[in-house]
Amino acid sequence: MNVVVENLPNCITTLKVEVESSKVSKVWEDVAGTYTKMACIPAYRAGKAPKAIIEKKFSKEIREELEKKLLSEACKEAIQEKGLKVISLSQVEDVEIAEDKTMKFTATLVTRPDFQLPNYKGLVIPLKPTDVSDEDVDNSLNELREQAADFVDVTEDRGVKMEDFVVIDYTGTIDGAPVSDKFPKAGAPLSGNTDFWIHMVHEAFFPGFSEALVGAKKDETRTFEIEVPAEFPVEGLPGQKIQYQVTIKGIKEKVLPALDDAFADTIVKGKTLAELREVAKQEIERQKKGEAEGSKRNEIMRQLLTQVECELPVDMVRTETRRILSDIVRENQARGVDEEVLRQNEQEILGSAAQNARDRLKGTFILLKIADAENIKPTQQEFDQRIAYLAARYDMKPDKLIKKLDERNAIDQILEEVLTSKVLDFLAANASVSTIPAVAETPAQS
Question: Distance (Å, rounded) from C-alpha 359 to C-alpha 304?
Fold first, then answer.
């Protein structure tokens, strides 16, 4: 078999293949023989019609059957002979069968990008230390205290102070009309609310809102004006002045529980404060090590991506970009982000999705090439573990999941995920860690 390879841009490869007459003739004879045995030709008993008559009468059918049998086999043989890493077979065209029974055709393939692997062993990865300090434990316990905090009414006769928690009724208007009437996309909360809790800090609601309430006493009503900041994400609203009328219904202080054995017992039954500190330390250490492992893998991929430049299959980039865009839109909608905001940032979101798609695909191709270089392969056990994890995640039985994946031709995708994860484990195990020195935070300037 004669094979001529032509590499085209965007990971497209064409194969011009010529199959020798001996192979074509053998398959032709086999197919024609089947028709000879089964064909009913007038004036001839079944299976006794001359070969020439059979081939003339069924030439179209014999040719189609011949192509079906030979093309796939010849493509696989040509790909193997040339050592190509094929992603998909795009099309087969220009099929010719000559009088001497040689067959020619052109196959268009989408192949993995070709590039030189960078040095991937012994990468130096800077990581933060995973040691757990007493301050880390103190911060963790204080977070638990914050979660268990109580809010008590202020009994003394005083006005609202910054850092208080106040319960308010309020209305917001622009030129006498509710904000939501003027700007429907702004949402109802800007127009008013009852029994609304606010933490008296500068960032609450709008900058300046909390400050306007300082000194107000319970049952007091204040009227003031707030200018909507420029970064507010509703078209036309930044710069508008909202007139607020606010009534103080309650002033509360946050009271943290004492850090003692009784508090420890409410967090983990039967634990003393000293024992709770040890539990917290172990959990923080586990989290830090997990974050460090994740950071190590992210840094490995970052370093590899910066060292490799290659073309990528255009259709794969488009498909991956669409998938990432869909994820971005779904996540933002779940967070309550208005569609208008998404449209306003459409170009930025699209650019980010396209870059992420290119990085993901390039990263996968790098890992697959390292797998080839190191002869790393997924095992059946690793595949089964991945299937078990996915089945549990989607609340399905493993055999049912495998069936669905097979119907979607997605088994190879799962194997690829297992393989790339295994390669990342290999790279992480061979990386050299450099500890990032702790840098003391400088106090903010007043």
Answer: 10
Instruction: Name the β-bridge partners of 197.
Output: 167
d(CA 39, CA 54): 8
Greatest CA separation found in the chain?
119
Residue range 264-312, pLDDT digits in tens: 999 999 999 999 999 999 999 999 999 999 999 999 999 999 999 999 9
CA dist 73 and 101 (Å) reads: 17
What Å distances lie between residue 9 and 196, 308, 314, 368, CA to CA?
Answer: 61, 17, 10, 21
Q: Which residues pair with 124 in a beta bridge?
A: 432
Structure tokens belonging to residue 233:
């994400």
The residue type found at 315 is: D
Per-residue exposure over 81-111, b if at least 16 CB sit within 10 Å of its own CB, e if not: eeebbbbebeebeeeebeeebbbebbbbbbb
Q: What is the reported pTM? A: 0.72
Segment 150-205, tens digit of pLDDT: 999 998 899 999 999 999 999 999 999 999 998 988 888 899 999 999 999 998 98
Cβ atoms of 310 and 113 within 8 Å: the answer is yes
Tell me the three state secondary structure of residue 159: coil
Record the tokens describing residue 29, joined without a space: 């004879």
- The CA distance from 423 to 421, in Å, is 5
